[in-house]
């Protein structure tokens, strides 16, 4: 395959692809991030031998530490298979801070905050955490 060094000009017909209808999606604002509940994760059922944790993931409990939304559960139990961040693929360690999205998915707070600042949707189900998007979604249902 041979590539030309000549630039290619693309002409877009405005009535087919109107430029004023292009939507640029921005990430979630700090206010929107701060509305999402934060939890501390505590491992449960982890066997110890001589003070060392056995290999393998264990489940745990997410305990609410802050939220501005009503209805967030004070505690949630996680199975071993659910006790991992699907962004960085690491298992949750004791006393790590988690954040839960309105869709119910949870992640390391640092991982999901970084993700949501770029793209305001859940990495797993694509639920939009932007307030404006959720309001318009409810109005059209």
Descriptive tags:
141 residues; alpha+beta; Herpes Virus-1; five-stranded antiparallel beta sheet; 3 helices; 7 strands; 18% helix; 21% strand; disordered C terminus
Describe this structure in words.
By secondary structure, the chain is an alpha+beta fold. It has a domain at 28-44 and 57-135: Herpes Virus-1. 18% of the residues lie in helices and 21% in strands. The protein contains three helices and seven strands; from the N terminus they run H-E-E-E-E-E-E-E-H-H. The chain has helices at 30-35, 109-118, 131-140; strands at residues 38-43, 48-49, 52-53, 60-66, 75-78, 96-100, 106-108. Strand 2 (48-49) and strand 3 form a beta hairpin. The model is unreliable at 47-53 and 134-141 (pLDDT under 50). This is RING-type E3 ubiquitin transferase. It catalyses: S-ubiquitinyl-[E2 ubiquitin-conjugating enzyme]-L-cysteine + [acceptor protein]-L-lysine = [E2 ubiquitin-conjugating enzyme]-L-cysteine + N(6)-ubiquitinyl-[acceptor protein]-L-lysine.
Question: What is this structure, in a nutshell?
Answer:
This is RING-type E3 ubiquitin transferase. By secondary structure, the chain is α+β, with helices and mostly antiparallel strands.
